[in-house]
Design brief:
The chain is 55% helix and 9% strand. It has 426 residues and is α/β, with parallel strands linked by helices. The longest helix has 37 residues.
């Protein structure tokens, strides 16, 4: 696969660092550079040094400016759209505050060349004395929730030093626009089966008195907490759709539904879902065994089972103590009845899911892998190398119609690409 990479630097009021970050990216790489000026008080174009101004004049550097601050997530989403419209395949995001070292760029580029359809993340080494304790805690906290929501262990889920494969993100519609965006895009790509590769990188943290941060400790944490709440809920609804996972969740739900804790069944299964990562919808479905007209029958069967187990079926009901005794018999009997019915529900759920389970649907989007086979690609390479590009382009008159007719995923991806690049054409 031919990789066409654009370096993107989202920035907001990084007055002291942005000029050096831009010039370093221009001098130490050969990539085109996009700066997304997210409403900075002083426009980035006014801060560029001679290297930046020369690149701006030559067209290698492009500055996209928002008049009002929209958030880092909005800046990156605009960069995605720009990258697709310019024919880039990958977007390399670098923070504009100088934290990321441009000398580390080749590490991620090499990983992207070897794995062009994966998301590449620079996992920061937190070894320096200037690393804020809040950053260390925030990363651990974020890594935990990403692992819980996706089942994938990530070392640095908050790193903004990333290479995004644009064909993975070009048609996603995101909910977030600020610092929570990088968490959302990571989790949603993991849910889509995209492989995430992490490369360890060195970073620079200035002393505390020189540090500039636009992270609002209250509102940004509120946004991230709300996002995690939504994503945890969605992940619990997506969890364990295998026959065994379905059977277990359904059986446990039926067991809980048989217990005499009416009004608390939903809370109980919510706790179970979170603690044991079980499918919340199937758990809740199982508890519906206690709805009328089954509830009185379950109560009667559980009470009779409790009396039989205790050998005491003649308990009077004249005091609170008598009522407590009856309830204890009911609870004991419900454990037995719930275990039996839960086991039946689990077996039926397993058998039904196995019979109805279909092969995973084919992905709509092209994954970026080469098509055409060794022979076909070899012939085209031979023509280009020995006869010249003119004859290679002539061959495309026959190759393109063939692939458009016979490669539905590539055709769909191409149509989506043009819909973004030129929406008026549709």
């Amino acid at each position: 696969m031919i990789i066409r990479t654009c370096l993107c630097i989202p920035t907001f009021n990084n007055k002291e660092a942005i000029a050096k970050v831009v010039s370093d990216c221009l001098l130490l790489t050969a990539f085109p550079v996009l700066v997304v000026d997210d409403g900075s008080e002083t426009p980035v174009q006014d801060l560029l040094d001679s290297v930046g101004r020369a690149a701006l004049a030559s067209g290698r550097l492009h500055v996209l400016r928002f008049e009002k601050n929209r958030g880092k997530g909005a800046a990156l989403q605009s960069a995605f759209t720009y990258g697709v419209s310019q024919g880039f395949t990958h977007l390399f995001a670098v923070d504009g505050d100088g934290q990321h070292l441009t000398s580390e760029i080749p590490k991620l580029v090499e990983a992207a060349r070897e794995n062009p359809w994966d998301l590449i993340i620079g996992a920061r080494k937190f070894a320096g004395e200037n690393v804020p304790g809040a950053s260390k805690f925030g990363r651990r906290f974020s890594n935990f929730w990403v692992g819980f929501q996706t089942g994938t262990a990530i070392k640095d889920s908050q790193s903004g030093f990333r290479i995004y494969p644009l064909f993975r993100v070009q048609n996603l519609h995101f909910w977030t626009t600020r610092y929570d965006f990088e968490i959302e895009v990571l989790i949603r790509l993991l849910w889509r089966g995209v492989t995430v590769r992490e490369v360890e990188i060195d970073v620079y943290y200035p002393p505390a008195h020189e540090r500039v941060s636009h992270f609002n400790k209250f509102w940004d944490n509120v946004r991230i907490s709300c996002l995690n709440t939504v994503l945890v809920t969605l992940s619990l609804m997506k969890s364990h759709r295998s026959p065994a996972g379905t059977a277990l969740a359904l059986g446990v739900g039926v067991f809980v539904g048989c217990t005499p804790f009416f009004g608390l069944h939903a809370l109980i299964v919510a706790v179970i879902a979170v603690l044991f990562r079980m499918n919340a919808l199937l758990l809740l479905l199982g508890t519906q065994i206690s709805i009328p007209p089954l509830a009185p029958l379950l109560a009667f069967a559980s009470i009779r089972m409790g009396h039989w187990l205790t050998g005491n079926s003649r308990v009077p009901l004249t005091s609170f103590a008598d009522a407590a005794t009856h309830y204890s018999h009911w609870l004991l009997g419900s454990l037995v009845v719930g275990t039996a019915l839960g086991s039946v529900a689990a077996v039926l759920g397993y058998v039904t899911t196995t019979l109805l389970q279909k092969k995973p649907a084919k992905k709509k989007n092209w994954n970026g892998k080469t098509r055409g086979g060794t022979i076909g690609n070899g012939i085209l390479k031979f023509v280009a190398r020995h006869l010249g590009l003119r004859w290679a382009y002539f061959c495309l008159y026959f190759i393109i119609p063939y692939f458009y007719l016979c490669a539905p995923k590539a055709r769909s991806a191409a149509n989506e690409f043009w819909a973004i690049q030129n929406p008026k054409a549709g």
